[in-house]
TrEMBL record, chains A, B:
GO terms for biological process: amino acid biosynthetic process; branched-chain amino acid biosynthetic process. Pathway: Amino-acid biosynthesis; L-isoleucine biosynthesis; L-isoleucine from 2-oxobutanoate: step 4/4; Amino-acid biosynthesis; L-leucine biosynthesis; L-leucine from 3-methyl-2-oxobutanoate: step 4/4; Amino-acid biosynthesis; L-valine biosynthesis; L-valine from pyruvate: step 4/4. It catalyses: L-isoleucine + 2-oxoglutarate = (S)-3-methyl-2-oxopentanoate + L-glutamate; L-valine + 2-oxoglutarate = 3-methyl-2-oxobutanoate + L-glutamate; L-leucine + 2-oxoglutarate = 4-methyl-2-oxopentanoate + L-glutamate. Keywords: Amino-acid biosynthesis, Aminotransferase, Branched-chain amino acid biosynthesis, Pyridoxal phosphate, Transferase. This is Branched-chain-amino-acid aminotransferase. It is an enzyme of class 2 (transferase). It comes from Harryflintia acetispora.
Amino acid sequence: MYDVKVERTSAPKQKPLDESKLGFGTIFTDHMLMIEYDKGQGWHDARIVPYGPIAMDPAAMCLHYGQEIFEGMKAYRGDDGSVYLFRPQENFKRLNSSCERMCIPQMDEELLLESLKMLVELDSGWIPAAKDSSLYIRPFIIATEPKLGVKSSDSYLYMVLLSPSGPYYPSGLDPVKIYVEQSYVRSVRGGTGMVKTGGNYAAALKAQDEAHEQDYSQVLWLDGVERKYIEEVGAMNMFFVLGDEVVTPALLGSILPGITRKSVIEMLRSWGMKVSERRISIDEVAEAYKNGQLKEAFGTGTAAVISPVGELKHGDLVMTINGGKIGPVSQRLYDALTAIQWGRAEDPFGWRVKVK
Amino acid sequence: MYDVKVERTSAPKQKPLDESKLGFGTIFTDHMLMIEYDKGQGWHDARIVPYGPIAMDPAAMCLHYGQEIFEGMKAYRGDDGSVYLFRPQENFKRLNSSCERMCIPQMDEELLLESLKMLVELDSGWIPAAKDSSLYIRPFIIATEPKLGVKSSDSYLYMVLLSPSGPYYPSGLDPVKIYVEQSYVRSVRGGTGMVKTGGNYAAALKAQDEAHEQDYSQVLWLDGVERKYIEEVGAMNMFFVLGDEVVTPALLGSILPGITRKSVIEMLRSWGMKVSERRISIDEVAEAYKNGQLKEAFGTGTAAVISPVGELKHGDLVMTINGGKIGPVSQRLYDALTAIQWGRAEDPFGWRVKVK
């Protein structure tokens, strides 16, 4: 048993009254988790405290040099009141892999899981019951040493925030419109594209803002070297159904190894479908479209689960996919994944972790 | 006149007693500057307050998505007690260009300069008088909206910190050893390499840590596409003296447009020297070395001014430059630039700005 001190709030906040208006990541629960790191001492002082502002030295390195990483996961309320996590061990494994690339000392994954369960259980009253709503979980680590020389920090803070959230896309499973980004680049091999660090997301804001101005919801990133191979879309991994093959870009160092991506691949294979992780160029997608072989396209991510793409624009070519409607593979994946996540179905893969 | 409120500290800190032990960016003065931004209101509430921790919501976007930028400059104490800044307008112009790329609302450059002068004058007693020491100035902007959806923030905080600092490299003008980085990539065209944002520095930590382990002080970055063209070194721009030509990589979108870089180019040209801003491959440098034409190599940056490179390693090839000693061009540039900065020489370029 790990030693996690708990200081309960003396002033519980009002919970959201209308669960249909939760939004995403805007409301926070009564408590948060903190673990500190100091050089020579290691990770120490795990504690759950009332949610509130933290005192930060304005010279803290995370504010200047972006030495920060995060994870994203969810807690789900089952019909019988049970609370589930989905493959949380995978998130903590990836957190440590992000730590390694970003020069942050790794953490004990068992401590991470145990302390997360304590926090979620304490604030389980905040998990919404409305359909497609869940408790979004945000673990993150920031560099806190107050020093302006560029180097790895000697002190860090790990925190977990909880946010009752509605669907990431309020329009739900309605297919989104995206376009192929031709000016900006998200990441390149040798960079940080395969870890969840702030800089990747900051670099992507400009393209995303420009997409929104043109009424597109996201951009599809191409590789930074040849500018032709598909990387990922917004904050999601990308899948294409080409004839009877499901294709997703291989993990070659510049895209995020998504946990929903991994689950989708395993699930499709368990259904006997052919899934290829390989390089796929935008030209191949356009060619398949012209030949009538581009059956479906969808993004995968923790926040949206499955996000079907109804329109994919590449320069002057506007590809309307499956008549702009969600396709059978996307729908089946969404139904099967969410049924496991919310405890409505058997869990043959052993992905679900019960909190209580 | 801009309205900048001033709240003086009631508990001034002890100033460093031994100016030879200042280090870089570890000590902060009595006051700091803050300006806030809120959507619909613009930048507001410019104020100088006692230096201290700020209260930050743990969901503030800068801690998750790295939407943050910074600048670096210095205040110099002249022999007669005058206080100077060096081309501060250039820093604020670049700050606004960083804002533009990173989706942060731009600021009034005149307000930035006026409020900086007020802060520096208030804490001018902290400017060290020791040789090569100065008051390092850190303006920065962080995204503060407490929200976990990935988007541009609706609120920001601009701050300026002041730090009395010794030379960036304690060994001073002693030439440094660097090697050509072959695994990691700092940035790629279409990314954020040309702006001062946290993610660029976070991405570079791993290579820097590995360089230190091998007793090298920095790495020389190659371009992310062809992996052969020279980009920059650590946090500095790079110059090579090849025969009688001084060459520095052109600003093609992935390297930082350094203000020392710009000043060095202008100064060399004023001396009648040939300076080329162009693509330069590591093979060309190695070829010049073998032909005896690689006369000098040096980095330029605000922190170090001029940092001569004594050894440049590329795979198995170890290039010892100018016998491992500082060369005449590097030395002349250092002397001329620092003489202008510290007010010891005429300022034919009009680069110096007097604070008081």
